[in-house]
Structures are given as structure tokens and as C-alpha cells.
Amino acid sequence: MRETYSRLMDKVYLASMWTAGLSLTAMSLIIPWAVFTRYVLNSGTGWAEPLAIMLMMVFTFLGAAVAYRCSAHIAVGMLTDRLPARAQKALAMVVDLLMAALCLFIIVYGYDLSAMTWNQYIAELPGLRVGITYMTLPVGSAVTLLFVVERIFCGSQHERPIVRIGSEERPHSIDDVVAKSAA
Amino acid sequence: MDGLALLGSFAVLIAIGVPVAYSLGIASVIGALWMDFPLSADMIQIGSGVNKFSLLAIPFFVLAGAIMAEGGIATRLVNFAAIFVGFIRGGLSLVNILASTFFGAISGSSVADTASIGSVLIPQMEKKGYPREYSAAVTASGSVQAILIPPSHNAVIYSLAAGGSVSIAALFVAGILPGLLLGATLMALCIYFARKRGYPKGDSIPLRHALKVTVDALWGLMTMVIILGGILSGVFTATESAAIAVIWAFFVTMFIYRDYRWKDLPKLMHRTVKTVSIVMILIGFAAGFGYIMTIMQLPQNISQFFATLSDNRYMILLSINILLLILGTLMDMAPLILIMTPMLLPVVKALGVDPVHFGMIMMVNLGMGLITPPVGSVLFVASAVSNRKIEAVVKAMLPFFGALLLVLIIVTYVPGISLWLPRAFGLL
């Protein structure tokens, strides 16, 4: 049961990771493209800015969920590390519950915000509703919540192979580069 | 009292191990409930905290640096630095500091600086007879330069936290001299230790090899030329220059250095999503937190508190520095910039301190916080790459703390170091 849930979460994780990663890639291409059209093609691209910002929202809130499953967020372990194991476990549960509460809060109020702005459109990009931009908040938090639930019932998953992708050795080991530059 | 509910709950949340970003989020909800303030307004602030064009610069700057750092730029910069200072007594320790200066021109991340330069140089330094903990101390303290030398994403975060009233261009240019001053001070200390302890000279590098190494490094260092050139000439905005730097960094690592194979790219994506998104979510929640803080009129109260403390600006700058140093030992840099800037900027502005100058004070000060225990991300990385206990590294670092403190005092009390260059460029 737990393993089934975690395997499902692997899929959610990968989907979020790719969505966030491709958003980051796309926004890194859109802004230079806008510069290119401005200087070379002499035509402004008004849509580039709001689109890049929307992609940044997607990237931020899904990326944060992904980073939560990897335990990549900055936290202070100085005090809790010194407690006895049982107290640590109890506090970890409190932390998870607080995280879940925050996620629920953002799901509810973020959805409201999105609904409130649903009928507003971004001037430079008529197809894009303001509400869609804000939809990233509840969606990202819902994914985070799924991972929080996983942590509560199955423990931290940051050692899982899928989660470790990109956290292991550099793509090229330093020795490779040293050898290359010496040659 | 209101402030206590907000700051107190934040402190408790951090202490029990809630990630800093989410602690800011939860504390702002608690603050909003305490003030009986509509939660939806808090939500809008969190959302719009990330919904800004100026914010785009931050992921781009982090990403450009990350792409370069994940490739083999560190080795190239180390080889390049060796041309200039390698032959002096204590050569490798000086190379370490100078390579960090160059690294700072590509990435603003001290952690990446320590990880990549440390893993290249610490083993080499050990072969030449430098103790590992000393090498770790040199690497970690040298990496603080990355925060000052442009491009620095922390400077962008400061500009954002200051409400966008401080130009990124001015902050970037302002960081150059304090960064170089820091590098020079650390190098002087390294030379002193090298003479006292008899660390060896390195070899001087033959001209032909030096030329090759220089060309190799210049490809990477062009990143800073693109960014600063673009911003100062007005051709690009800061955000655009950062995005172009990402493309450039990718082009250089992929096609000039050939550090990545295409099949490595998904891994690179996994890695960068994790590192960049944790900064971004922090900014979002800090926006909500800052908003509640403003509603509670915390910045004004803190200004008034400092005003009652003294009307002498030197005393107030001193006490602010002490406060930041203490907070810096406990917390990471980005959240502190986001939380403390709106509180402290009104205080120093009232005393006639230029916001750009104050930004530099914060950078040096909080940069020191990265290498001080109990919580110092750069210190942890330095201890990991050198395979030495944190205590041992801290002990070796004590004289370097002294050097950094000296630089902090100079940067605090000699505004010209921060302001002369931006004035010369007409940015102030």
C-alpha cells in the first residue's frame, strides 16, 4: 500500500520535475528571443514578458514541491539534531502537520484568488487569464501536500533513486576535466 | 506585541525544523490571523511576490552560474589564476582566492564556489603540504567574494527587498571594489601564513600554455562582460542580460568546453530545478511575511527603536552590524536579506546612508554568516569537500574571520569604497 502510493508519487514527482524544468528552459529562451526581435527584427514582443512570468510561477510552485520531496529546502537542524530520537520523531511529525496545514491554506485561498481573477486577461497576451497564473499556487501546493502525506506515512523519500537524480556526482567528474585540460 | 506573534512564531517554526521558506509562509498566516486580517490578502502577496518581471533576473542569474559551475569552469579558472599568482610563495592558496574572484564574476553562489573550487584545489594543496583544514578555510572565506563580485543574485534579492528603489546596475558595480578589497585582504593573510609556515611556491607557467589557459578561461568570463556590458550600456535590462547569460553559459559549456553530453542534460535539469526553486519559493513566502510585517508597522517601530538607541550613525551602523552578524550565524543569507532589508533600510536611510552602500554592508556581513557556525552553508560544504570536521575548519578559519571583520569595518565606515565606482559610471 505504502509502496504503491510512493510509486504513484514517483510519477507525480517526475511530471512536476519535467514541467518545472521545461518551464525554466522555456523562460530562458523567451526573454532572449524578445531581445532578438527588438534589436534584429525591430518588432516588440509584448507577450514575452507575461508569458515568462507565468512560466516562472509554474516553475516556482511545482519546483518547490519537488524540492520538498528531495528535502532540498533550507532548514535549521541545529536544535533538533541534539534531541533524543523520540523527540526528533515527534517534532518531525509536528513539522509535517504544519506543512500540511500551510498547503491546505494555499489550496483554499489560492483557488479563491485564481477564481477571483479568472475573468481578467493579461493585456499583452489576450489568451492568458490572470487566474491561470495564480492557479499555479493551489496546484503546486496540492502536489506538495501529496508529498507531505507521503512523508507522514512512509517517511522521508530523499534517498529514493528517482529523487536522487541530479543530486549524485556531477555529470562530468572533476577528474575528467583535469585530465582534459592537462592533455 | 503584534510583532512578537509574527517574529516569535517564525523563530519557533525555524527552531523545530520547518524549512525556512515555509516558516515564513506559516508565520505570515499566523500573523494575519493574529491581526484579524483577511487571509486572502496574505495569499495575494505570496502569489504576486513571484509574479514580477524584475524577479525573473534571479532564476536566470542562479541558472547561468549553475550551468557553468556544474561543468568544469572551476578547473579553468584555477589554471587561469595560477598564471598571475601561482609562482609566489604560498602560490596555491593565492590561486584559490583569485580563482574565487573569477568564479564570482560568473556565479554569485558562494556554496557553488566552495564546492567546485574546493574539490579542485584542496587535493592539490594537500600534495604541496597545506593542511586540509587550512585549505578548506581559505576556500570558504575566499568564496565570500562571489557575493560581492557581479553578477550577484543576492544583490538582486536586496534590490527586490528594498522595494525596487535601488538599481541592480548600481549594486552590481558597487560590489566590485569591496569584492576586490576582500580578495586582496585574504591574499595578504595567505602570504603571511605562507612565509610563517613555509608553504611552497608554485611553478611559473610557460607563455604558450598560459595563452591557451587564458583563452579557455575568457570564454567563461565573458559572462560577466555580457551582463555588465549589457546593463551599463543600456542595451539590455538586468533581467534580459541574465537570460542572455544563461544562453551564453549553455553555449560555452556545451559547445566550447564540451563539458556536457546531451544525455547529461536531464540530470542538469533535475539539479537546477532543485537549487533555483528553493530560492524562488523563499521570495514568494517572504513577500507575504514582509507584507504582514508592514501592516504591523514593524519597520517603523524598529526605526524608532534604533533612533532611541543613539543618534550617532556610526553607533547605529555598528549595532546593526552586530545584529546582522548574530542573525547571520543562525540563518541563511537570502531569507535574512528579504526579512531584514525592509526593517533596517528606513533606519539607515534616515541617517543619510546610501541604500547602495547599505546593500554592500549587508552583503559582506551576511556573507560572513555563511561561514560561521552553528549554521553556515558554505562552512558545511567546505567541511564536506575537505573531509575535515567542522570544528577543525572553524579553528583554521579564525584568522580569516578576523580579515573578513576588518573588511566589514572598512566597507561600513568608508562609503566611498562602495559608492565611488557607481558614481563614476553615473549610476547614482
User: In percent terms, what proportion of residues of chain B is strand?
Assistant: under 5%
**In angstroms, what separates the terminal alpha carbons of chain B?**
39 Å
* Helix/strand class of chain A: mainly alpha
Our Rg estimate of chain A from Cα atoms comes to 21 Å
Mean pLDDT of chain A, rounded to whole units? Answer: 85
- Mind describing the biggest β-sheet of chain A? 2 strands, antiparallel
List segments of chain A where confidence is low: pLDDT < 50 over at least 5 consecutive residues: 169-183
Structural class of chain B: mainly alpha
Q: List how many beta strands of chain B DSSP finds.
A: 0
Radius of gyration of chain B, whole Å: 21 Å
- Can you write the helix and strand succession of chain A as a string? HHHEEHHH
Percent range for β-strand residues of chain A: under 5%
- Shape type of chain A: elongated
Which stretches of chain B are low in confidence, meaning pLDDT under 50 for 5 or more residues running? Answer: none
Counted by DSSP, the helix tally of chain A is: 6
Helix percentage of chain A: over 70%
What's the quaternary structure here?
Answer: heterodimer
3D shape of chain B: globular
Largest interface: A-B, 67 and 77 residues
The biggest beta sheet of chain B is recorded as: none
Task: Explain how this protein is built.
The complex is a heterodimer of chains A (183) and B (428). With 183 residues, chain A is mostly helical. Chain A has helices at residues 2-39, 48-69, 85-116, 130-154, 161-164, 174-182; strands at 121-122, 125-129. In chain A, 71% of the residues lie in helices and 4% in strands. Chain A has a two-stranded antiparallel sheet with strand order 1-2. In chain A, strand 1 and strand 2 form a beta hairpin. In chain A, helix 1 runs antiparallel to helix 2 and helix 2 (48-69) runs parallel beside helix 4 (130-154). The longest helix of chain A is centred in the N-terminal third of the chain and has 38 residues, at 2-39. Residues 169-183 of chain A have low confidence and may be disordered. Chain B contains 21 helices and no strands. Chain B is 79% helix and 0% strand. Chain B has helices at 2-15, 20-34, 39-49, 57-70, 73-85, 91-104, 110-127, 132-142, 145-148, 153-161, 168-197, 207-233, 238-256, 265-295, 298-309, 313-330, 333-350, 355-369, 377-386, 390-413, 415-424. Chain B is mainly alpha-helical and 428 residues long. Classes of the chains: A mainly alpha (183), B mainly alpha (428).
